[in-house]
What we know:
Blueprint: H1 2-7, E1 22-27, E2 30-35, E3 42-46, H2 47-53, H3 59-62, E4 69-72, E5 85-88, E6 91-92, E7 97-100, E8 103-104, H4 118-121, E9 127-133, E10 150-155, E11 163-171, E12 175-183, E13 187-189, E14 192-206, E15 213-227, E16 230-244, E17 249-251, H5 268-274, E18 293-311, E19 315-335, H6 341-348, H7 354-357, E20 363-385, E21 388-409, E22 427-452, E23 455-474, E24 491-510, E25 513-524, H8 542-551, E26 555-572, E27 575-590, E28 593-597, E29 610-614, E30 618-631, E31 635-648, E32 652-654, E33 657-659, E34 672-682, E35 685-694, E36 697-698, E37 706-707, E38 710-720, E39 730-739, E40 747-751, E41 759-763, E42 768-776
Parallel strand pairs: 7-10
Antiparallel strand pairs: 1-2, 3-9, 4-5, 5-6, 7-8, 9-10, 11-12, 11-42, 12-14, 13-14, 14-15, 15-16, 16-18, 17-41, 18-19, 19-20, 20-21, 21-22, 22-23, 23-24, 24-25, 25-26, 26-27, 27-30, 28-29, 30-31, 31-34, 32-33, 34-35, 35-38, 36-37, 38-39, 39-42, 40-41
Amino acid sequence: xxxxxxxxxxxxxxxxxxxxxxxxxxxxxxxxxxxxxxxxxxxxxxxxxxxxxxxxxxxxxxxxxxxxxxxxxxxxxxxxxxxxxxxxxxxxxxxxxxxxxxxxxxxxxxxxxxxxxxxxxxxxxxxxxxxxxxxxxxxxxxxxxxxxxxxxxxxxxxxxxxxxxxxxxxxxxxxxxxxxxxxxxxxxxxxxxxxxxxxxxxxxxxxxxxxxxxxxxxxxxxxxxxxxxxxxxxxxxxxxxxxxxxxxxxxxxxxxxxxxxxxxxxxxxxxxxxxxxxxxxxxxxxxxxxxxxxxxxxxxxxxxxxxxxxxxxxxxxxxxxxxxxxxxxxxxxxxxxxxxxxxxxxxxxxxxxxxxxxxxxxxxxxxxxxxxxxxxxxxxxxxxxxxxxxxxxxxxxxxxxxxxxxxxxxxxxxxxxxxxxxxxxxxxxxxxxxxxxxxxxxxxxxxxxxxxxxxxxxxxxxxxxxxxxxxxxxxxxxxxxxxxxxxxxxxxxxxxxxxxxxxxxxxxxxxxxxxxxxxxxxxxxxxxxxxxxxxxxxxxxxxxxxxxxxxxxxxxxxxxxxxxxxxxxxxxxxxxxxxxxxxxxxxxxxxxxxxxxxxxxxxxxxxxxxxxxxxxxxxxxxxxxxxxxxxxxxxxxxxxxxxxxxxxxxxxxxxxxxxxxxxxxxxxxxxxxxxxxxxxxxxxxxxxxxxxxxxxxxxxxxxxxxxxxxxxxxxxxxxxxxxxxxxxxxxxxxxxxxxxxxxxxxxxxxxxxxxxxxxxxxxxxxxxxxxxxxxxx
Length: 777
């Protein structure tokens, strides 16, 4: 059960040396999995529970039931990346650390430059577990962005026996997800055992807000060789996805404010009729006009090889190399006489008929064309010496990312498609082209000292060094970016944080109760790309970049947390057990970076130039409390209540204006969260109800705008079918999932970008239903 997985307790006295190891116990047909031996607030969710949320769900979406996690997305699987919003203890997804089997996945920027999302890195059905450290990630986590916690996803290993697994999901809005996995089973050879699997998934669904398909396909392959003294693992993933996206709704910016912004695709004739003779949308809709389409196209190749060598019982040395290549486009086909575009186009085509230049339709196709080449290595040496467990590790990554902003014609007789890359023959201009490289080095050392059988102390530190270099082979023409921009900067920017300490302790009060505490300092290295929102390389002049080098510091945080874990069997009538965890935390977040727009409204279509500066501090205090009550083997009730108070401590200056943010709450972060999971199982039947409450949130930095709280209810029911004699089919299961059961309407997700008055939002997805048949043979 999800509630079980959230707060189940380890057996304190018999721990493995790996602090992220997992212990599994059975309780009827329930699997209890939890991180062990950690001084941090750390919880895990297993494969079965992830698939109960919705077969094929993004593993990050699945953890939305965990304490302190606020997650929103526009689709039921959590796959649409433009609309994803994740907050943990006041930090957003760009300030957390993400890994797959230890491989860094970057900071999850939608402006793709240093990684990929977990759902693009591994097929959901091949996920073994997800581990959340809500306060501060482990020292050895390969991330340069984790001011806050870490989200570690682990792929499942091949099975010991040969077999095939399959799943087929059908549902609302023509949704279809087809999954297949073939396992080789263990085969003797090469001085040990060998096993592997090949897996593929194909998913597609019509977006609920418009008539376009979202989805793609993905393949995984994994090989494991187990020898007498070591284990060799190889993994490869390919992901190809296309996601037409809706735009967010602007509020208080003037003109119409629809419930959601739709797209005109695929009705080209309606699109032609929508704009006037100059390519302008209706005058009463200057900010929430409809585009023909917008989309994200991403193709990723990710692979690693890892060898873990055991030198007796006391020493283990693991080495891992990885490579990631990404190529893709973000596209918008919209009116040529909106969002300040006529001013841009006249710089490149002075005195010409812009409508004719771009194909006579009144539309143009804008692309942001991405390229990533990352390669890296991770090495960890673990030594057990008496009462001490010593760990030394290092991580190196080299990344070359390219960003091209280009504009293409949208011919009146041959409109572009959201499922294809832009046609090079229709290219009209390259607004800019940027290449940014960085070398990243992180090292860490820590000692876990078992002072007594009941008390463990942990201390260590990491160093984080980044050496970045940005070049712009094609600069925008003068005036081609808003404000007073003179072009994107070039140069080197090196940041070095040599001492980022961590200290923690565990006290086993009893066999079933444990106190823990932890203090840690972290840094978020500068984003190194023109595509990234808080990047020094995305400012509007060389002078601004040089000032950043001289006067601006990367963001840092101190995290303090302490808590109690407990698990007890009870004999109180129907109540037979309780598992609980409560933790309190305090965060001092310093050198907060803010992108201050050079114009009143950030020019997201033309391309934003901005000022980047430190704007002060944030202080966060919070409490997470969660408990699972067991009523015999067939019923459990889980509830998690979280309180978070994240407040700015300083005002900041934009131009000559002081923005009064001191004492204001961080926008988009709810102070109250509550999650409830009721799970019932009886023989082949299981039913699960998931309730998710997110409290009121502010929508601007000065807190003059906000939205109320919301409560969503999701249901899941499953029935295990008997084997089919004569066909060898087993583990057959039929499951039904219903999201947003009450069909709640309203604002679901906020987009914060202004100090006051204006803000953006996405609408709540409607009720949807899905049915899945899964099995094996």
